[in-house]
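Lecture 7 notes: from sequence to structure.
We start with the chain below.
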Amino acid sequence: MPIHWVASVVEFNVGLDWVCNRAIFRPSDFAVWTTHSRRAPSDWISSLKVAYLKRLEYQLKQLVYHNRDGSFTTQANRKKHLKRFARELRMLGYNQMHVRSLKLKHVHALIKHWQGAGSSIGTQKNALAHLRWWARKIGKDEMIPKSNNELLIGKRKLIPAVSKAQYLTRTELKLVSNEYMRLSIELQQQFGLRQEESLKFRPSYADKGSHIELKGSWTKGGRKRSIPVVTFDQRDLIDRIHAIVGQGSLIPVQYSLKQWKKKYERVLGILRFKNLHGLRHGYAQRRYRDLAGFESVFAGGPKRRALDSNQQVIDVQARLQVSQELGHNRIEITDVYLGR
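Predicted structure tokens for the same chain:
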């Protein structure tokens, strides 16, 4: 392939060096093409145009790579969402974008597209969080309004009508024959951990005697937190985990996190234990009862408006403590777990 053919390929105002460095292609690729290729210049024009159109996707991938804040799961979700944004923006006709050209009109276009596709309010808000991260990383923090109302995104209904609390008996737990999986589920029940937190749990680091400490890389949002050990069952569980995993975690050494999560979810699906988030709800309600001295609304206790002034103070303190132990740090979120 003559070198002047390659030069003709990049006449769409990009430049060979820019395409190589910014649109995935490497200079060494061109050396191979000039030596071995029998494809016509029109084929290379098509290939390079595709790369040019996908440059935003590539640049966002690089942005995530160089800004690794949050847990591994948060980073993976962010990368997936940003890749989708690039594809959607290209589909909506924004073909000339690069990573720093994000504007409010693009945000509005994406929201309109999501709403037209029937995305739930919760899905839209989660996606918007990743858009805000993108804007923040390119120095446009104030571009996207902080209020979702200004973006015409409604409020989602978070508070369920009835309690979602779950509790697995010893008989039910014995149905999970794999000891690593069973211990992970017990952690979710005894300490209110999220699924991934319970899988990454490493007792040699987490066990501090009077409390357990979770690393930021284990948790949602990358926020480390501690949870007190107050019952015999909690202490017994941690000791059993020590005996099984030693210095390791509740992910067997021969598996990656991704592989083990897949196996874990498949086994739980077979046992019809598919969604165990209710174990966190159960933990929150039991912990609230211990802290407040009376049951939460969802567990049959009095509604907030029926509490006297002293009980209201106790209620606020207990809810704040429960929120912190669950890793939320917002008292409002406890309404989802405890009712109001």
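Points to note: Residues 57-151 form one domain. The first helix runs from residue 3 to 9.
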